[in-house]
Design brief:
Bound molecules: 1-O-phosphono-alpha-D-ribofuranose, hypoxanthine
Protein name: Purine nucleoside phosphorylase
Strand order of the largest sheet: 5-8-7-6-9
Shape: globular
CATH topology of the domain at 91-152 and 167-286: Rossmann fold
CATH superfamily of the domain at 91-152 and 167-286: Nucleoside phosphorylase domain
Keywords: Glycosyltransferase, Purine salvage, Transferase
Helix content: 25-40%
Oligomer: single chain
GO molecular function: guanosine phosphorylase activity; purine-nucleoside phosphorylase activity
Largest sheet: 5 strands, mixed, barrel
Order of helices and strands: HEEEEHEEHHEHEHEH
Family: Belongs to the PNP/MTAP phosphorylase family.
Structural class: alpha/beta
CATH class of the domain at 91-152 and 167-286: Alpha Beta
Radius of gyration: 18 Å
GO biological process, one term: purine ribonucleoside salvage
């Protein structure tokens, strides 16, 4: 048995073969990929001429195990653009290695997308935020990456991207500008935020001391996803846009403790998903193929 991590993951040929197999199940040729966060999969219901491919139908694809993540790819048209939505993502805390968490991003790139939109449910760390706010990701902190669990660990194939990729500018400036303008037009100004998302491994929610630490590190919101996907997307040259729905406020004081639950996360998701979906749909309409 080997514990050598350098050979793990799917090869470039594996990824292309998976993409080819999936494309045989749909007529659509997507240019935009969307990963739906916890309870935020409803956007898939807005897709015209949908073709649905369940993850279990795709050889070598992980299965989604978390409530609020259905486990299917939805291909079709949104605002005139051809899209593929992941209705259900993979998380490190489900027991998947990082490279597997983000492998669908490489598959979507191999299917032809040039832009990736990532959505998530996140806890608010910035005391000025409120539950129900929408936070555009200006940047992220890859806590697992900083502590030795970067999604790009392992042998690098330059056909995916460079060995030492830059991560500055991961979130596309132009898309951020467009999204902000759309949010103003839609009247979302009062709930629109822009900030830094920090990924923790999960599945435990933060203690008060941890929330204080993450806040002191400069994070505005915390979640257990998104960063590996965004890093892999940037590595392979995709334009990335990220947005969080703030589903709960993290406790920064022992005097006002809120013990977050996944049910609470899904409930706020249900209540506020409509606005997030509207914003994302309008942005898709503006993206140049
Ligand atoms: O990041 P998404 O998938 O939206 O899910 C968020 O919600 C779950 C916790 O309720 C965690 O998985 C967290 O990451
Ligand atoms: O408060 C949170 N912490 C971590 N992940 C989350 N996902 C939704 N809310 C949270």
């Amino acid at each position: 048995m080997t514990t050598d991590q350098s050979e793990v993951g799917y090869t470039f040929d594996d990824i292309n073969s998976i993409a080819k197999d999936v494309l045989q199940k749909t007529q659509h040729r997507p240019t935009i990929g969307i990963i739906c966060g916890s309870g935020l999969g409803g956007l898939a219901d807005k897709v015209d001429q949908p073709d649905v491919v369940h993850y279990h139908e795709i050889k070598e694809f992980p299965v989604a195990t978390v409530q609020g993540h259905e486990g299917k790819l939805v291909f079709g048209k949104l605002e005139g653009k051809t899209v593929v939505l992941m209705r259900g993502r993979f998380h490190y805390y489900e027991g998947y290695p990082m490279w597997k968490v983000a492998m669908p991003v490489r598959v979507m790139k191999a299917m032809g997308i040039s832009t990736l939109i990532v959505t998530n449910a996140a806890g608010g760390l910035n005391p000025e935020f409120n539950t129900g706010d929408l936070m555009i990701l200006r940047d992220h902190i890859d806590l697992p990456g900083l502590t030795g669990e970067c999604v790009l660990i392992g042998r690098n194939d330059e056909r995916f991207g460079p060995r030492f990729p830059a991560t500055v500018g991961t979130y596309d400036d132009q898309l951020i500008k467009q999204a902000k303008a759309i949010a103003q037009e839609l009247g979302y100004g009062p709930v629109l935020r822009e900030g830094v998302y920090i990924m923790i491994g999960g599945p435990t929610f933060e203690t008060v001391a941890e929330s204080r630490l993450l806040r002191n590190w400069g994070a505005d919101a915390v979640g257990m996803s998104t960063v590996p996907e965004a890093v892999v997307a940037k590595h392979c040259g995709l334009k990335v846009f990220g947005i969080s729905l703030i589903t709960d406020m993290c406790s920064l004081s022992y005097d006002a403790v809120n013990a977050t639950t996944h049910e609470e996360v899904l409930k706020i998701g249900q209540k506020r998903a409509g606005d997030l979906q509207k914003l994302v749909s309008c942005l898709i309409g503006k993206i140049q193929d």
